[in-house]
Design a protein that fits this description.
208 residues, alpha/beta, UDP N-Acetylglucosamine Acyltransferase, domain 1, 2 domains, 4 helices, 16% helix, 24% strand, globular
């Protein structure tokens, strides 16, 4: 039986959604957690993922067991432990609201048409550029440029998917902002040669 997505998303009962929003045609795998996270249209993730304080662009492809926006403990305090900011849990007093405000403010951004490989970890406050690839098991601690291929711990740029002029053209075309109808009408063009795609759709740059 062929799986078909719906414009309105079906969320597995095992997945926890906290103060988060999903666009159209999105999919979230089972046993995942979304906290303060927005998925834009067509983006999906595999199972057992954790997203905290994240904004995800359109058409993002996220594998299983990925963690994005992994929160930090307070390293400059006398103790790293929860009791210093989740104080109410231990009946010590009020929680440290300022600590949590700072944590939420460290938003992680994942660009359009990205691929985040299985088991990757992306630290808070990082920006992943459009069209980039994060290899499986990578640990990302700094900004990733558009259309870069990154892998390792810490993640390092291995190469870029395309030449600079191709990247610039794709950024001009912004096909991820097309309507569902236009993508449907043009889907065979996405199977073809990148140069043919740009020649057809990049009205500003001309032929490459």
């Amino acid at each position: 039986m062929v799986k078909k997505l719906k414009e309105k998303n079906d969320i597995p009962n095992s997945t926890e959604i906290i103060n988060s929003k999903l666009g159209k045609w999105c999919e979230v795998g089972p046993f995942s957690i979304l906290q303060n996270t927005n998925f834009d249209d067509y983006s999906y993730s595999g199972s057992n993922c954790i997203f905290q304080n994240v904004k995800i662009g359109k058409f993002s492809n996220i594998a299983a067991y990925v963690r994005v926006g992994a929160t930090d403990h307070p390293m400059n305090r006398p103790s790293l432990h929860h009791f210093t900011y989740r104080s109410n849990m231990y009946e010590f007093g009020e929680d440290d609201s300022e600590f949590f405000k700072k944590r939420v403010s460290r938003t992680t951004f994942i660009g359009h048409d990205t691929w985040i490989g299985h088991g990757s970890l992306i630290k808070p406050g990082i920006r992943i550029g459009n069209g980039s690839i994060v290899g499986q098991g990578s640990v990302i601690t700094k900004y990733i440029p558009d259309y870069a291929v990154v892998a390792g711990n810490p993640g390092r740029i291995i190469k870029y998917r395309f030449e600079p002029e191709i990247i610039e053209a794709l950024q001009r075309i912004k096909w991820w902002n097309w309507s569902n109808e236009k993508i449907k009408d043009s889907y065979m063009d996405f199977r073809g040669n990148i140069h043919d795609f740009i020649d057809k759709f990049d009205s500003e740059g001309g032929k490459i």
